[in-house]
Amino acid sequence: MPLSPGESPGFLLWHATLRWQRDIAAALAPLDLTHVQFVLLACTWWLNSQGEHPNQQALARQAGTDVKMTSQVLRTLEHKGLVAREVDPADTRAKRLRVTDAGADLAPRAIAAVEHADAQFFRPVPMGDAVALLGRLAHPEA
Question: What predicted TM-score, i.e. pTM, was given to this entire model?
């Protein structure tokens, strides 16, 4: 017999995910970023801060996003003046990614907004428990 919706982990996860996505979208709206734009900007900013200048494929791998979609969103971030794509001297077919000064200013503010939204969303659950469970779900092979 099928589980009732309130007993189905998948159904509950679906609803929790929808609520979380709404909360994140609301936190990012004043910064004129979509959730995907935020993830790609934040990942680029973080990689740059570690001394790396990833190409689009490396960024997609870091972010867990599709390479084609990553390229499209990067065009938008470039148009907004937040990310620059520069020819890779080691491979002229590849573009290296660099956060611009405007992107470097926005990324930490966007991260703070998202971290605040996350803290509010996960408040009913001890943070260590949430991170442990989500880590197991995100990387079951580990």
Answer: 0.91
